[in-house]
Amino acid sequence: MSERNNEVLLNVEHLKMYFPITKGLVIQRTVGYVKAVDDISLFIRKGETLGLVGESGCGKSTTGRAILQLYKPTAGHVYFREDGKMVDLTTLKRRELQPMRRRMQIIFQDPYASLNPRMTVGGIVGEPLEVHHIASGKEKLERVKELLDLVGLNPYFINRYPHEFSGGQRQRIGVARALAINPEFIVCDEPISALDVSIQAQIINLLEGLQERLGLTYLFIAHDLAVVRHISDRVAVMYLGKLVETADRDELYEHPLHPYTQALLSAAPIPDPVIEEKRQRIILEGDVPTPINPPKGCNFSTRCPRVMDVCREVEPEMKEVAPGHWVACHLFD
Ligand SMILES: Nc1ncnc2c1ncn2[C@@H]1O[C@H](COP(=O)(O)OP(=O)(O)OP(=O)(O)O)[C@@H](O)[C@H]1O
Ligand SMILES: [Mg+2]
Description:
This protein is of the alpha/beta class. 30% of the residues lie in helices and 26% in strands.
């Protein structure tokens, strides 16, 4: 976990990622956009974990990918600290971006789909070392063995294939691959959602241990609120392409302010049976609107139990209502 006063490593300003919707087989026309990420601002301090939560399809993965420049953002800026300066990744040319790419990595949700089945573990983990011209030959082999050891896999397995491993072990391979080039920042995109509950904790412990040992900074994407509470220093809540609330972990879980955050938390079971019995569920009406045609005003206005007239007209801005606690809701105007 992080120290409170650490410097900011990553600063995202007004990030937008719109995917065009095209029509026509021969001449393609753009007939609209999927507004997957629609004006998001956030920062992450060095060594901390920012949890990003929200329902399926709200734009969490797209946010992670746009930050890493795996997509070219439609608008906005992504600043990454480099020698004491904040460098805007969105303005870098391909060649300038390359050295920055070495400093950030992603761990995917599905360790079955994300590992090449025809490559050995040694090949998979060592590939980034070749791509970034860091090591080859015997040196690469040594580094791969070191990495396998680091993530709790027997280096003896270096010549085996992904299918010979369990889900948890495969995710360890994914982690070793992400760590190969010594990144500072890792987007963990639901890294345990596809795993058995019994092994989820092992991977969480591994990620936490690595963070402490290597001083890593995480953007941790998940829809499981209990996991996010466990691993995050701060939490950002996302709904339909926008952030609705950001706060320190305990503040967010103990004093959720946005009606969406409150509904999300009310839906999560509490492991204490006494508290669980008293838990009041807030049931949201209706479905999440489509990001192709989001509502006017506040995106949550169509489902909000506390909606007011202004919510259907004016989009709420993020406001700091307590130190470090930001919320975008007209109830706090
Ligand atoms: N490459 C793409 N082209 C077009 N639309 C996309 C693309 N990637 C994502 N989308 C759309 O953008 C929206 C956000 O998707 P995204 O995968 O970021 O959500 P998510 O929060 O990660 O969801 P989940 O929890 O299911 O992983 C969805 O409506 C999705 O269909
Ligand atoms: Mg996703």
